[in-house]
Design goal:
CATH topology: Rossmann fold
Low-confidence stretches: none
Largest sheet: 7 strands, parallel
Number of strands: 7
Strand order of the largest sheet: 3-2-1-4-5-6-7
CATH class: Alpha Beta
CATH architecture: 3-Layer(aba) Sandwich
Mean pLDDT: 98
Radius of gyration: 18 Å
Helix content: 40-55%
Distance between the termini: 44 Å
Oligomer: single chain
Number of helices: 8
Number of domains: 1
Bound molecules: NADPH dihydro-nicotinamide-adenine-dinucleotide phosphate, 2-hydroxyethylsulfonic acid
Order of helices and strands: EHEHEHEHEHEHHHE
Length: about 260
């Protein structure tokens, strides 16, 4: 399906998978609404895309945990673009990696507020536009951590199990409204994810991806584009993507 000129709203577009996904949709000729908390990053990405593609790009500073700001941003999008054709619920994070009894409650709140509640706010705000328009596609970034728990992943895994449940729930509510829903569930992708999880500890973050070849954000962007460009009667509901050297959430073949 040709998605040229479709309006694509991406949360968490300032880094990693969201940034690569923005570039990939721009190559398809899509207009972009790029959101994240770091405005300078999305503004610079927007300038880069505008320089290289003939598409419209609107960067909006947005913390998906801020319910009022989410609805205000969607009002702005409606005013400037009319509707949203494709929503990529990508903003998310892991914080900490400890057994539950040693976990920091603030870390749990941040993950739950971002990965679950933020995704819910954005989806609720955007869905009326898609329903009114009679079409749409919601693409959620879940994780293999939403399929299989791993030691000390506890709350992060629980948030991603929630994304999986919500993706399924949306599907049975939207299949009769011409709105497709997809969950993209990657294994280890080298992004800022581990740096954020370990609160800026560069060495610890680097070690996560050491001795094997992890996925690149572009690998995930490619799968998202594949899902978005299927013919209108085809809905890829789930995609699980692992690095070849990762067997499951705990098994990784490392060279040292
Ligand atoms: P990055 O840390 O590289 O990017 C995360 C993005 O989310 C950033 O753009 C960040 O922007 C944004 N973000 C975080 N919190 C908020 C918030 N409160 N409001 C708005 N935006 C926010 O990580 P990835 O690209 O790896 O992660 C993207 C998604 O993919 C996440 O949902 C993650 O859980 C999932 N995922 C990642 C995997 C991996 O191995 N990397 C594997 C499986 C799934 P800013 O800080 O500017 O707000
Ligand atoms: C991120 C993938 O396995 O590092 O969702 O938690 S993992």
């Amino acid at each position: 399906m040709n998605i040229k000129s479709k309006n694509v709203f991406i949360t968490g577009a300032s880094a990693g998978i969201g940034e690569a996904t923005a570039q990939a949709f721009a190559q398809q000729g899509c207009n972009l609404i790029l959101t994240a908390r770091r405005l300078e990053k999305i503004e610079s990405l927007a300038s880069d895309i505008i320089k290289n593609s003939n598409v419209e790009v609107l960067p909006i500073r947005l913390d998906v945990r801020d319910r009022k700001a989410v609805f205000k941003a969607v009002d702005t999008i409606k005013e400037k673009f009319g509707t949203v054709d494709i929503l990529v619920n990508n903003a998310g994070l892991g914080r900490g990696l400890e057994p539950l009894h040693q976990g920091e409650i603030d870390n749990w709140e941040e993950m739950i507020d971002t990965n679950i509640k933020g995704l819910l706010y954005v989806t609720k705000a955007v869905l009326p536009l898609m329903i009114e328009n009679g079409s749409g596609h919601i693409i959620n970034l879940g994780s293999v951590a939403g399929r299989e728990v791993y030691p000390n992943g506890n709350v992060y895994c629980a948030t991603k199990f929630s994304v999986f449940a919500l993706s399924k729930a949306l599907r049975i509510e939207l299949y009769d409204k011409n709105i497709r829903t997809t969950t993209i569930d990657p294994g280890m992708v080298e992004t800022e994810f581990s740096l954020v999880r370990f609160k800026g500890d560069e060495q610890r973050a680097k070690n996560v991806y050491k001795g094997f070849t992890p996925l690149k954000p572009e690998d995930i962007a490619e799968t998202i584009i594949f899902c978005a460009t299927r013919p209108p009667h085809v809905n890829i509901t789930e995609m699980v993507i692992y690095p070849t050297e990762q067997g499951n959430t705990t098994l990784v073949k490392r060279s040292n």
